[in-house]
Design goal:
Helix content: 25-40%
Family: Belongs to the glycosyl hydrolase 10 (cellulase F) family.
Shape: globular
Keywords: Carbohydrate metabolism, Hydrolase, Polysaccharide degradation, Signal
Organism: Solanum verrucosum
GO molecular function, one term: endo-1,4-beta-xylanase activity
Oligomer: single chain
Number of strands: 24
Number of helices: 12
CATH class of the largest domain: Alpha Beta
Largest sheet: 8 strands, parallel, barrel
GO biological process, one term: polysaccharide catabolic process
CATH superfamily of the largest domain: Glycosidases
Structural class: alpha/beta
CATH architecture of the largest domain: Alpha-Beta Barrel
C-alpha cells in the first residue's frame, strides 16, 4: 500500500511517503520537513494503531531555511520479526587449497575447521557478584568474550571521598578479565546526571572541580592504561548537564581533550539513552549527531557512538532508521546496555530481546553489542538471562540460539575436491583448521576479515 500525506501548520509543512509491505507488516516512511516562523523545531511523526494511542515512529530537528529529512517506520503487527540479516557484512567466502611438498594440489584430503572467535563482539555487563561465584563464571565464559562493569569503575565508587581512591574491587574484576582473555569497556569516566555525582563535588569552585576531574582522569587512565578498549567519556550528556552548569558549554569537549592528552590511543565514546529506543525531546538522533559534529569541530576525536538501548517494546523499523542516520557520521556504533523492561513477562522479554539483537546485528554500521544483564542475589536491573541457579530463562535461550548457533560458523568437516580445494562461507573472525592426509595431520590458523572477494589460503601437507 502506498500513501501520500501532506500536512500544513503554522510552524511547518510536511510531506510523507508511506510504504507498507504486507508480507512482513513493516511500514517505512520518509519525508521532508521545512519549518517557518521559528529557527528550529523538533518534528515527530506518529501513528495510531487501531486508533488507540499515538506512537512516535520518527523525529527530526527541522531548521529554518532548508528542508530536513524525516525517516522512520513501525511494525504494523508488533509481534512480527522484520529484520533482514545482512550476512554479506558479517560473512565472507573462503577457499582452502591443500598442496603437497612439490606444490601439487591434493584432492581427497580431510578438512576440519572451527571458529575460535568472531569479529562481532557481543558481551554482557558484570558486577562484583561474579567474583568467587564459579557457576556464574562458568555460565558467562561459555558465551561471552566481552564485558563492561556495572558501577564499580564509576567515579562515585572509586573516589567516594576527595583524594581517597579505592580500586580494590576493580582490580579483582580486572584480574577476572585478564585471566579469561576478555575485552572490557570503560564505563564511565564522568556522568552528567547530578544524582550520581559525589556530594563533595557539588560546592566546588570551577578551578577546584577542574583539578578534581583531571585527578580522576590521571588516576584511572594511568592505572588501567590499554586495559579498556572503549571509554564512555561523559555519560548521558543530552539528558543531564551537571558539568555544563558548573563549567560551561565546553565541559565535555575539555573532558575529551584531557583524556586524549593522558592517553592519545584511548578509544573515546559518547553514551546516551532514548536515541534508538524511542522518541525523546531531550535525546533524539539529530541532537546526538550535532553533538558529535560540535566535538569534532572543537578539535577532538570521538571514536564511537554509544547507544544504551534500554527498551520497552522495540520498534525495529524506527531503530533501523535511527541507525541509518547515525551511520552518516561514519563512526563505529555500539549498543552498550541492552535490556528489555521488566514490565513484560519472561516470554515477551525474550521475543523483544531477539528483535533488538537481530536488528542491530543486521546493520552494517553496528560494530558490537553489550547487554545489561548482570545477575545479583536480588535479581537483575531489568532483564535476567538466567535464574538464581544459572539455568537459562527464555532470554538466555535467545542468547544461546544466536551466539552459539546462528552467528558463528561452528565446526565444519569435508574433503578437498578434485582441484585440492575446500570452499565455505564463514562469519568473520579467527579460525583453526586441521588437514588429514596420508595419516599426517597439519594444523593451522587464519583470520577472516572484511572483503568482497573470496579469501584464499594455502596449506602444505
Amino acid at each position: 500500500m502506498l500513501m501520500l500525506m501532506w500536512r500544513k501548520s503554522p510552524l511547518f509543512w510536511t510531506f510523507f511517503l508511506f510504504l507498507f509491505f504486507a508480507t512482513s507488516s513493516l511500514a517505512k516512511h520518509r519525508g521532508w520537513v521545512r519549518v517557518k516562523n521559528v529557527n528550529s523545531a523538533l518534528v515527530t511523526a506518529t501513528v495510531k494503531p487501531d486508533n488507540k494511542y499515538a506512537k512516535c515512529i520518527g523525529s527530526v530537528i527541522a531548521k529554518k531555511g532548508c528542508w530536513s529529512f524525516l525517516k522512520g517506520g513501525f511494525l504494523w503487527d508488533s509481534t512480527s520479526n522484520s529484520s533482514e540479516i545482512d550476512f554479506q557484512e558479517r560473512k565472507r567466502g573462503v577457499t582452502i587449497h591443500v598442496v603437497d611438498k612439490n606444490g601439487l594440489r591434493v584432492p581427497g584430503a580431510a578438512v576440519k575447521l572451527s571458529q575460535i572467535s568472531t569479529d562481532f563482539p557481543i558481551g554482557t555487563m558484570i558486577s562484583r557478584t561474579i567474583l568467587g561465584n564459579l557457576p556464574y563464571q562458568e555460565w558467562f565464559l561459555k558465551r561471552f568474550k566481552a564485558t563492561v562493569f556495572e558501577n564499580e569503575l564509576k567515579w562515585y565508587k572509586t573516589e567516594p571521598l576527595p583524594g581517597q581512591f579505592n580500586y580494590t574491587v576493580v582490580d579483582q574484576m580486572m584480574k577476572f578479565v585478564r585471566k579469561n582473555k576478555l575485552i572490557a569497556r570503560g564505563h564511565n569516566m564522568f556522568w552528567d546526571d547530578p544524582v550520581y555525582v559525589q556530594d563533595w563535588l557539588e560546592n566546588m569552585t570551577v578551578p577546584q572541580l577542574q583539578r578534581a576531574m583531571k585527578s580522576r582522569i590521571k588516576s584511572v587512565m594511568s592505572k588501567y592504561r590499554n586495559e579498556f578498549f572503549h571509554w564512555d567519556v561523559n555519560n548521558e550528556l543530552l539528558h543531564f548537564d551537571f558539568y555544563e552548569k558548573k563549567l560551561g558549554p565546553k565541559a565535555t569537549l575539555d573532558m575529551f581533550k584531557s583524556m586524549q592528552r593522558e592517553d592519545p590511543l584511548a578509544t573515546l565514546f559518547l553514551n546516551e539513552y532514548n536515541i534508538v529506543e524511542r522518541c525523546d525531546s531531550k535525546a533524539n538522533v539529530d541532537r546526538y549527531i550535532d553533538t558529535f559534529k560540535e566535538l569534532k569541530k572543537g578539535g577532538v576525536k570521538v571514536a564511537g557512538i554509544g547507544l544504551e538501548s534500554h527498551f520497552s517494546a522495540p520498534n525495529p523499523a524506527f531503530m533501523r532508521a535511527v541507525l541509518d542516520k547515525l551511520a552518516t557520521l561514519k563512526l563505529p556504533i555500539w549498543l552498550t546496555e541492552v535490556d528489555v523492561s521488566s514490565m513484560y513477562g519472561l516470554e515477551e522479554q525474550a521475543v523483544f530481546l531477539e528483535q533488538i539483537l537481530r536488528e542491530a546485528f543486521s546493520h552494517p554500521s553496528v560494530n558490537g553489542i553489550m547487554l545489561w544483564t548482570a545477575r545479583s542475589p536480588g535479581g537483575c536491573y531489568q532483564t535476567c538471562l538466567t535464574d538464581e541457579k544459572f539455568q537459562n530463562l527464555p532470554t538466555g535461550d535467545v542468547i544461546d540460539q544466536l551466539l552459539l548457533n546462528e552467528w558463528t560458523t561452528g565446526t565444519k568437516r569435508g574433503k578437498t575436491n578434485e582441484f585440492g580445494s575446500y570452499n565455505f562461507r564463514g562469519f568473520l573472525g579467527e579460525f583453526k583448521v586441521s588437514i588429514l592426509y596420508n595419516r599426517t595431520i597439519v594444523n593451522s590458523t587464519f583470520s577472516l576479515g572484511h572483503g568482497v572477494d573470496t579469501k584464499h589460503i594455502t596449506i602444505h601437507v
